[in-house]
Write a structure and sequence with these properties.
Layout lengths: L3 E6 L4 E10 L8 H8 L6 E12 L1 H16 L3 E5 L5 H8 L17 H34 L7 H11 L4 H23 L8 H39 L2 H7 L4 H38 L5 H11 L2 H27 L5 H33 L2
Parallel strand pairs: 2-3, 3-4
Antiparallel strand pairs: 1-2
Amino acid sequence: MPADIVLKKNQDQSLSLFLSGEWLSKNNIDNRAAVFDAVEKKDFDSIILDGSQITQWDSQLTAFLVHVMEICKQNNIRCVLNNFPTGIDSLLALAFAVPKHTEAAKTIQHKAFLTFLGNVVLQFLEKTKSVYAFARQTYASLVRFFLGRAVMRRADLFYEFQEAGPGAFPIVSLICFLVGLILAFVGSIQLKLFGAQIYVSSLVAIAVTRVMGAIMAGVIMAGRTGASYAATLGSMQVNEEVDALKTMGISPFDFLVTPRMLALSLMMPLLVVYADLMGILGGAFVGIFMLGLSPEDYFRMTMKALLMKNIIIGIIHGAIYGVIIALCGCFQGINCGRNASAVGSATTSAVVYSIVWMTIATAVLTFIFSVCGV
């Protein structure tokens, strides 16, 4: 016999529900929606449910009763259960024993502007403190390294040099070659108006060696190596490998941070020089094959435009970029959370902060060099 519900309105302002049949999950209750509509009308002060005619039941019955009782609770309606099978009372008690998880539904809280501003300032101060503490520990680890007291494996140091240097040659070659090509192509559009295509070589040489080569190499290494540092150290933090090093009495800064700091800081100036070379070759491709300049004239003008001060300025940019990228990547990795999503957030933050601080450093260095007349 399928499940059925019969409604009856009583003269004493109450509603009676008579449940009968097989209340099983496989059976559909045709008038369930009508029953809920009647219960939600609020034109009575109590509901009486009778289950004397129920032959079989499972969680279908429990779910129905819970729904009806929740409606009664919301509308301050008294609910009475009569003649229900043995065991239903304990299931209902269990269903209402644990309160609903109120945090499941996100609510938008509008904060006052001053409250928002205060929270931003406090978060900035906390982040500044953590960055200062990280930089101080990194400095202490570097001092221990140069004094020969840092605990690290020489193989790890050589591996990081390999990854930060020769391992980055392919992507640096491609990107910097294309950047030099773009600079030459864009510059030639204006220089053609004056018949001065030969000065494309000077334009590319000065722009690439002074700042563009260092910036492009820095952006590439931020996305490649800085993100790798954050992801690697973040994964080690999640897997509790960093905690294991501390338990064994090994400083994570000596074992994990210092090799990466040294490798990237020392390899970035060399990568900048290599990026300058690839940018000049990209400009030469446009000058020789698209503008019709002879290779001898192009490289002669390039050598005239190559000034040692521009090359040194680019190398200084690269060295500072290397420190920034390594600090941002290792800081985000060491301070990563303990779940998989935190690793992704740390990786993204490492790249974003690296590029932001490289831009700030470029602005400061450009101002300093301009003041100094370099």
